[in-house]
Write a structure and sequence with these properties.
By secondary structure, the protein is of the alpha/beta class. 33% of the residues lie in helices and 23% in strands. The strands form three sheets. The protein has an eight-stranded parallel β-sheet with strand order 5-6-7-8-9-10-11-12. The protein has a three-stranded antiparallel β-sheet with strand order 1-2-3.
């Protein structure tokens, strides 16, 4: 039984800018679990918003590896072990998914059988425009042929949102998701701003205020002309009763949920409360995006474009055509 970690430098096709930072590349990790001649792989996409960086991931993995001193044959054994170790959520997902992928290979079962979920055939993903100058929007839209996508997502901040939307509207009438990544700090200013978006085909507004402003979100939900989608407010143990009062839906990301099983639990709880569901991603290879894709049957929205902005995607487990994501010839990491 051996656990391994490999670091990947993922070059991006363009500068990925959101309200809190900008990146020209990402550093992710691949976790490998090898046992009895089979190897399972899982991806780790650290996010500084949640106090995750390459140094922290490597140190936490080494602590995990040095603590595993008994053979692990069943998922419940791994889960019991993980529950007593405080690992970063992205690393926990990488470890859990590597084990599950190994288990499926070793026992010749599909991931969908193991998880008890329906396998999607093809999933319509949105494509996200990062924050940029308004005069660059049309060229970006045309260069990356974004007219093929059913929905678009646009990253915004307080100062550039309207200009970017106006520029986008000059070339597209596609429904658009507004993703602010906690950019607004004043709920009253936000309430004054939102009606200015009503002339655009806005589907929803995602996480416009910081996650800790819980009472402000309750107030905002009563006054917003748009549906509100939670992102940064949804981690591994979300208070769904509170979120139901603050938002109309949730964006579940496996890197934040910390595992397949917990991600499914969060989605099921949101559906039980009649909330909108979305499966999202970080900037990831198709290994990580394939994991998210597997949970998309029946969700309202999918944001799986994290692999499409990579200049050096190494796995090619998925392919995109006309805005739909399907499995490629290589297929699942469990085969």
């Amino acid at each position: 039984m051996e656990w391994r970690i490999k670091q990947l430098r993922l070059e991006l096709k363009y500068i990925w800018k959101i309200s809190r930072n900008a990146s020209e590349f990402k550093e992710n990790f691949i976790i490998e679990f090898e046992h009895n001649g089979f190897v399972g792989q899982g991806e780790v996409a650290p996010n500084v918003r949640y106090n995750e960086n390459p140094t922290i991931i490597l140190k936490a993995f080494e602590n995990f590896k040095s603590s595993v001193n008994i053979p692990i044959e069943e998922l419940k054994e791994l889960m019991q072990f993980l529950d007593v170790h405080n690992l970063p959520n992205a690393l926990r997902f990488g470890i859990e998914s590597a084990f599950i992928h190994w288990y499926c290979k070793a026992n010749e079962i599909s991931l969908h059988e193991f998880l008890g979920v329906e396998k999607p055939s093809k999933i319509a993903t949105c494509y996200t425009l990062p924050i940029m100058e308004a005069e660059d929007v049309v060229k970006f839209y045309e260069t990356y042929e974004l007219d093929r996508f059913q929905h678009l997502k646009i990253k915004v901040n307080e100062t550039q949102a309207l200009d970017m939307l106006e520029a986008l509207a000059s070339v597209s009438n596609k429904p658009v998701m507004i993703d602010a990544n906690e950019s607004w700090k004043d709920v009253e200013a936000l309430i004054q701003f939102l009606p200015k978006l009503q002339k655009y085909p806005v589907l929803f507004v995602e996480q416009p205020l910081p996650a800790h402003l819980k009472e402000e979100y309750v107030y905002l939900k009563k006054h917003s002309p748009f549906l509100l989608m939670a992102d940064e407010s949804v981690l591994d143990q979300p208070d769904m009763s509170a979120l139901e009062k603050q938002f109309h839906g949730i964006n579940m990301k496996l890197m934040k949920a910390g595992g397949y099983l917990n991600g499914l639990r969060i989605l099921q709880e949101a559906r039980r409360r009649k909330m909108k569901t979305m499966v999202g991603c970080m900037v990831e290879t198709t290994l990580g995006i394939h994991s998210a894709w597997n949970l998309c049957a029946g969700v309202d929205y999918a944001d799986l474009d994290g692999c499409l902005i990579l200049a050096n995607e190494p796995f090619e487990l998925l392919k995109e055509s006309n805005g739909y994501i399907t499995e490629s010839v290589q297929g699942s990491p469990t085969h």
